[in-house]
Amino acid sequence: MVIGILKEANDQRVAIVPATLKKLQDLVDDIWVESNAGLNAGFEDSAYQEQGKIKSREEILSQADVIISINPMSEDDLAKMKEGATVMAMFAPFANDQIVDVLRKHKVKAFSFDMIPRTTLAQSMDILSAMASIAGYKAVIQSADALPRYFPMMITAAGSIKPATVLILGAGVAGLQAIATAKRLGAMVEAFDVRSAAKEEVLSLGAKFIEVEGAVDDKDAGGYAVQQSEEYLQRQRAEVQNRASKADVIITTAQVRGRKAPILLPAETVEKMKRGSVVVDLAASTGGNCALTQNGQTIVTENGVKIIGDSNLPSTMAQDASTLVSNNIFNFLKYIIKEGAINYDMEDEIISSAFITK
């Protein structure tokens, strides 16, 4: 079995880093890597050649048995694959209900990394969590750069500076990393999440947990938020608006799988925020938690609030992000490849969940 690694079209990351190739050799016959696939992440072709082979995109598409990328390939690329080959990427079928039909039309088998269940057994394969952690970290760094103030308290001969107040909305993987990073930078941090189980984790990181009573808590939601009642949402909006008006930085991370991201910061709340404050919306690609967010753009409101809509922060830390993704993918491949072939055991929760063209 030959595995092919493609260069990402609009992403600085690469699916497999050179250090992973040696481990992959124990699973498959050969590994082909597209020329310059890892260059933007800091990995030269020469590093890949020690364990694999550098090939053109056309060769990989037409001849490899398994093709791996982080982002979905174009239809033109799918059309060049040999019939019955397997493709692996983050297809996000919950967000794109046409993708499975497209894959079937081209007669390829497909595994979607973002469909791997977020369970203890599959934790080492969880790309979503790995990338969320990077996004949470980078969101804080980005907000600190955009904020016209210090994060920590400063006592100098010229006077004292109060610490910045950072509000984190959503205390999942990204939110918890944002809390930890903001605390390390010396900010006063408070966090909100509809999941009561998040309270202990927030407090353990030294942040204040904002509680709004009456939330629906779904422990089987796989780490995602769940839909809440309108009554609860009204109380939530009132409390968030009160906190937001005092915050210097707000980082929003809440996403509901298969649905548009919930609006946590309506326009009227942004209007009450202080001039110079910053919002970083990590849910921008699914509509945004802020009503004014524009995905992939930074806007400044009339009252001087900067809103950064960026769902692709992991790509800005391409080297470490690629290393983590590579480890996740290797752990998945090690799990599903048995005696040189892919195991399609549909009784297995991990395999069945990730295999989207069954």
Written description of the protein model:
By secondary structure, this protein is α/β, with parallel strands linked by helices. It folds into 2 domains: 2-115 and 318-354, Rossmann fold; 129-311, Rossmann fold, CATH 3.40.50. It has 12 helices and 17 strands. Helix 1 runs parallel beside helix 11 (318-336) and helix 6 packs parallel to helix 7. The longest helix has 20 residues, at 127-146. The protein is elongated, with a radius of gyration of 22 Å. The two termini are 21 Å apart.
Biggest sheet layout: 7 strands, mixed
CATH superfamily of the largest domain: NAD(P)-binding Rossmann-like Domain
CATH architecture of the largest domain: 3-Layer(aba) Sandwich
Report the average pLDDT across residues. Answer: 92
Count helical runs.
12
CATH class of the largest domain: Alpha Beta
Helix content: 25-40%
